[in-house]
Structure formats: structure tokens, C-alpha cells
Design a protein that fits this description.
single chain, Metallo-beta-lactamase, Chain A, Rossmann fold, 2 domains, 5-stranded mixed beta sheet
Length: 394
Amino acid sequence: MKPFKILEDLYYVGMLDPDRKVFDVIMPLDRGTTYNSYLIQAEKVAIVETVTVTPAAQEEFLSNVRALVNPKDIGYVVLNHLEPDHSGALEILLAQAPQARVVVSRSGEHFVKNLLNRDVQPLRMGDGDSLDLGDKTLRFITAPFVHWPDTMLTYLVEDKVLFPCDFLGCHFCDPRLYDDLVEDFRYYFRYYFDVIMRPYKEYSFKALKKLEGLDIALIAPSHGPILRTNPRQYIERYREWARPSEPSARKKALVLYASAYGNTRRMAEAVARGLGDGSAEVEIFDIGQGWPKEMLDKIEAADGLVIGSPTFVGDALKPIWDLLSSFVTIKVKGKVGAAFGSYGWSGEGVPLVEQRLKDLKLKVPEPGIRVVLTPTEEDLTNCREFGRRLAQDL
């Protein structure tokens, strides 16, 4: 990707990565991604973000920068956070621009020193602090835990441009780069929020509050299209997705299970009846048959999560582990959790699930309940009592 002018004195110097298939190990990609970096040609030249760590990316980035300025003329390198896909070219850039000051949030100093493994003295910016570039001004908005603890957003005052780091971005590669020129990327915009921002919804909502009243003509994120067509529409989408759930008069519980031969299913139904007896609002799902698309919303809104799995070769079933792995993208800490299931020989599935719930910081007030093969009427009565106790724990 060659550098190009976005606005007078603002240039794109990032790169495209259309062939990338997975990001940060956890995110499958089918449209690649971009590493967006921006150069401000002010009296004191500033770079906002660099690119990722690969040598090819670094060389392309430096070539783009050199096409516009002598690196020795760069005064500042602004890193909205220090994740390597933003800071991967920092060291090689500083080697050619030794006079440039690195600009980070106050908590970013720790990360930049450990990134470069040498002592640096970055400029540390707090909420509302400004940096004078001579004929341009950068203002900084701290946004901790969106999605790293050192995250900040940068605002180019005179041109009303917001550089929001990973906020309002997405993994979607199209060389046309502007939101009004690329293909429909709404799915990717929401997918990015769900995986990257959703675990930090409360912090995202706080960051959105700080953007109220800010005059924004263009949003230049670190990944994906540059947003110039009614930029506020993207902020409003985030506001809708990050808005806290309204508290319910009744506690909500989900019973989520997989069942090979129907035994764990019968236990699940009895547990659900017991939760209902205890006045909890209950939904039950056989996740071995797949999940509804709104499942993560339901999990996030629930007060209790009751997980059922038979034991297969000394373990819980794969759909259960897939479910539990999805919990990293939502806030589950403090919810009530419990496990149950049928088994034939050894029964490790239930204690393994129970331990995972504890590791995820759910409260597990009731020991898991296990049944050998087909549950008896007494077993089902015990399952129902198990549900009633869980309702009280809620």
C-alpha cells in the first residue's frame, strides 16, 4: 500500500494484510486486516501508531514514511497502546528517528520499556492533556481497558480527527480503505466488537461518554476502514452494544448442556424445573445441537450458568469446552455457576467443568451433581432440589 493523503497534512502510511487468516490466535479472519498508521505533516511531524512486527511490514512502513518525510524530521511517535500490532515497527523507526519522542498514556511507560528492553523516557499523557505540534494540536483521552490497560485515544483538534486505537476498528482489508468505498463491512465491525471489546463493555461505555460533545469529522482507527461517512453512526452502534443491561426483577439462569444419550438432558430438565420452583427465570439449551446467535447476549444477561456434560474419555464434551472458551469474550466474573452430568465409568467431566467455572471467577456454591448412566426418579428429585438451592444462591 502506497501512502496517500487523507486530509491536508494528514497521510496514511500503514499497510494491508489481506492474507492473514488468524489474529491473536483467537480470531479467525476471512477478510484479512490492515495496520493503520498515520503521519501528520505539522511543524513538528508526528506519527500516530506504527505497524506490526514482521520485517516485511516494517520495511513497507518505513518506505511509506520516507516517501513523505525524512525520518530525522519526526518529532513524535504516538502509540495509543503498546500491543505489538501497533508498536511492532517502533524500534526500527526510532533507529532512523532517534530524536523522536515516544508518546504514551501514563500507564504505557511500563509497556514501552518492556517492549524495547531498554530505558526510554516517553512523554506520558493524562486525560485531557495536549501536545503542541506547532500549527497542530493533539489532545489525549484516556480509555483504560479498552481493551488494554494503557489505551488512550488521540484527537487532532484542528482537523477534528479521532485516532481511537482499536476502538471503532475491525479486521477487514480492502485497498479502497474508506467506509463509503469498501464493501459492506457491518458484520466485521460487530464481530470485532464482540471478540475484542465485549469483555470490557463497561470501560467502553465510559470511553464513549468522553466522546460526547466532541466534534468528530473523521475516525481513523488502527484496523479496518477509515470512517468518514457520518462518523457518529459508528459511535452510536458501539453505544448500543456497550450499554449496560437493565436489571431484571427476577434472577435469570441458563441451563446449558450437551447429552449423548439423553441422560444428561433429563438431568438438565430437572435442574431447570428446580430453578423455576425457586422463582428464577430459566432458559434451557442443548448446546450440543448448536447455539442461537444471541447466546452470548443471554449468557451476559444471566445471573447463573448451570453447565451439564456427560464424561467422555475422562473429559467433558467438546461443545462444553467450546462454550466455556467463549466466556473470555464476555463478563462472567461473579455470576453463580454449577455443573452436573451423567457418566458411565469415571465421571471426571463434572469436576473439570466445575473447576473451570471457578477459574473464570464464577461463584460455585453447590458441589456438582453426578449420576451413573440413567438417572433414577430419586436422582431426578435430587437434581430438582439442586436447582432449587441454586435459585436461592442467586
